[in-house]
Please model this.
Amino acid sequence: MNNLLQYRERLDQCLSERRSFLVSLEREKSDYETLLNRRSVLQDTNTILQAICAQIQTTVHRSVSDIVTRCLKAVFGENAYEFRIVFEQKRGKVEAVMQFVRNGEVYDPMTQSGGGVLDVAAFGLRLSALILSSVRYRRLLILDEPFRFLSVGYRFPIRDLIETLSKELDFQFVMVTYIRELEIGEVVQIG
Model:
């Protein structure tokens, strides 16, 4: 009889543990369902954010490439490079790769173009960054020898471009330069 009571106590203990495990299992199932729902919402949110980011990239790319290409064409003529930014997914992040394009051919700006072309493109990039910034109080771009690698024959077109952009975009440019052809507006000579 004593054995029977021990078995009965052990059985009651096992049944109690089973009920506790079943309650815990139901709670875990409920938590799992909640997590699945959250995951679904997060995936939908991620999809929406990716679409917004792609749209912003496209808009920014168009603005930046238009400005840089305009600068290149103003200086080097209609046969100048077109500027593009290609967005690539690498290491879980989006990277921007800058390219020059002419007649359907893609060129690496750093290795397949001259210093003068890079000077003009860098000027266009700085200008576009300033235009795209939210600060509108005073548009000022300070440049330190921005066109030092630009050939002599292209100095007057870049001068015309700077004057045009200054008036058109209401920008003030301050340049440090030793190039006489780029002395525009109020000239302050030091030394």
